[in-house]
Amino acid sequence: MSSSAAAGPIRLVDRDPAISAAELASELTPPPQFEHASFDSYRPDPDFPSQQAALDRLKEFAGAWRAAQRPGGFFSRRRPTRIELPGVYLDGGFGVGKTHLLAALWHVASGPKYFGTFIEYTALVGALGYAGALQLLRGARLICIDEFELDDPGDTMLMTRLLGELMASGTRVAATSNTPPNALGEGRFAAADFLREIHALSSNFETLRIDGLDYRRRDTDGRAAVVEGDGGVERMAASLAARGHRVSLDGFDALVAHLATVHPSKYVKLIDGIEIIALEGVRELHDQNAALRLVAFIDRVYDAEVPIIQNGVPLDGVFDDEMMAGGYRKKYLRAMSRMIALTTGELPPHD
């Protein structure tokens, strides 16, 4: 909280954030909810032995990586019990702990190391250019990619090329996919799809299947919470700001338009220091580019654990039927689940 917040809510549309390459790199770490994730804190479901098997294999993966860093030369190292591939892919449904395991692996690795979503890495390339992103990431001992997405052939080819160059220089890579229930079949990317799309790299990846139920038991059929009454959101935002909370207040259309002027790699800076986001006049979107920018923005808000208050159409209803029937369906479903969580969580007391 800040004493300056008492002046009233902040407008995100007034912010024009800048971010350096060093800042972009510093943001490539696990989100706050996985800041202390470890192998020991992962709780495998005994009803699904593949969870324990994946945990054990990732420990081996981490152990082999650490062994490779030990001094002493060839004869001081134990011969590996299996062929070690430089990449590992966690193939599983929604909420089985893939991100927890990915973050745990990142935490035990020594640097330089990076952790980000597929969207964050493609945004990095967009901000720095391919050569700039390659230069930044080159030399990394480990790169973790959460929520690898296969629905954009251009982005998939870009990431395949980037990872190919990095892995050829000794970088190890761990990746997950993340598809909400009812999106595709079992609610997962098939490992075969992942390996087919990254065909140039598929021989470098070992696939670990993780079965199980969503430990959060998220209900994607729920709805985002809406503040009722004219002026309700504005009054709540003003009350929270008067109590010293850093609150933003924007019209939905204005924010969506502003997102088009800010590179997605800078969205994390757009919400820097914000404790609560207030949106007025949420409505259904019909522009897919605007919808995808909103998805990227919500991902950053979710990672930062910033709650949202809103009126108008429930946030999870902003994607029209055509979008929900299209190729980006899984992205929208994930965003809907996150928007429900962000609008139904606990808020500080207000008048």
Automatic annotation (TrEMBL):
Protein name: Cell division protein ZapE
Listed Pfam families: AFG1_ATPase
Species in which this protein is naturally found: Agromyces larvae
GO biological processes: cell division
Family matches, as InterPro entries: ATPase_AFG1-like, P-loop_NTPase
Segments for region (Disordered): 22-42
Transmembrane intervals: none
Keywords: ATP-binding, Cell cycle, Cell division, Nucleotide-binding
Superkingdom: Bacteria
Name of the coding gene: zapE
